[in-house]
Design a protein that fits this description.
The protein has eight helices and four strands. With 271 residues, it is α+β, with helices and mostly antiparallel strands. The protein has a four-stranded antiparallel beta sheet with strand order 1-2-4-3, sandwiched between helices. The chain starts with a helix and ends in a 5-residue tail after the last helix.
Length: 271
């Protein structure tokens, strides 16, 4: 092969190599652009998915909050409706007469023969709703260890209790509501006992779901009993309670005299 032909072939090979390199470079650039575009699309898709997920979470949270608010509002409306109906029922003369009779025979029971059965507890919860007000309410429950205080134990034989819960500072209302519930228990044939401190406060707090601004002011032990106590706490005299001489007291309207006698009989430990 001549020298001229060799140079021509060499130039052809170089030209082919350059063309090939350019083609390879062009393909590599296109691949890089395609990969970059794919990554960009994937990133955008991921961002869209994240945004969609956040939207779903937000909507879900809002829906959940709305549902909870609706449930709470409905429960509050039902509670108010039931409470209003209950307060109307309390004005019934038959109920007042029943409580008056119960007050005459009620004494504090500390040794019980058993815890009331579930159906009885349900009835007690209805009674608790009947006597509860805006300022004070009764919660009825059953909990082991509720009457196991750190110091001396005074209640035995039952695990049923009623928590007297106060909203605000009107302790008198808590006393009125608690006493009405006690008399309803007595009318049902159950024994009761006021407890200001002789119970397990930690167990009580864990057993009762308190709302904002509420606190437990005392507990009432509830249970079945076979025998009345042999000794009954002495009642204070009418003069000690009212500061009135007999002549002044008996000059009061009959309903006022009846109310004082009822209060005197209802809670011997306190009066």
């Amino acid at each position: 092969m001549s020298k001229k032909h060799r140079k021509t072939n060499k130039r052809a090979e170089e030209t082919a190599a350059e063309t090939l390199n350019e083609a390879v470079s062009e393909v590599e650039d296109k691949i890089e652009d395609a990969v970059a575009e794919t990554i960009k699309s994937a990133d955008e898709a991921a961002e869209e998915l994240i945004a969609a997920a956040e939207t779903v979470d937000t909507a879900s949270g809002e829906a959940k909050a709305s549902a909870e608010e609706a449930i709470a509002e409905l429960a509050e409306q039902n509670e108010h409706t039931s409470a209003n109906a209950a307060r109307e029922a309390i004005t019934d003369d038959n109920i007042m007469e029943k409580w008056y009779k119960a007050a005459q025979r009620r004494v504090s029971i500390r040794s019980f023969s058993g815890t009331p059965e579930i159906p009885v507890l349900r009835t007690l919860r209805q009674a608790a709703q009947m006597v509860s007000t805006e300022e004070a309410r009764i919660y009825v429950g059953k909990r082991p260890g509720i009457f196991d205080p750190l110091l001396k134990k005074v209640i035995t034989g039952t695990e049923a209790f009623a928590a007297v819960i106060l909203r605000g500072k009107n302790k008198y209302m808590a006393g009125f509501v608690g006493e009405a519930f006690l008399l309803e228990c007595e009318a049902m044939g159950l024994g009761t006992c006021w407890l200001g401190a002789s119970y397990n406060h930690s167990v009580a707090k864990a057993s009762v779901k308190l709302r904002q601004g509420e606190k437990i002011v005392c507990l009432i032990a509830i249970g079945k009993y076979d025998e009345m106590p042999e000794t009954v706490g002495a009642r204070k005299s009418l003069f000690t309670l009212t500061g009135m001489e007999d002549e002044t007291f008996y000059a009061l309207p009959e309903w006022q005299q009846c109310a004082v006698r009822c209060a005197r009989m209802a809670a011997p430990t306190l009066t």
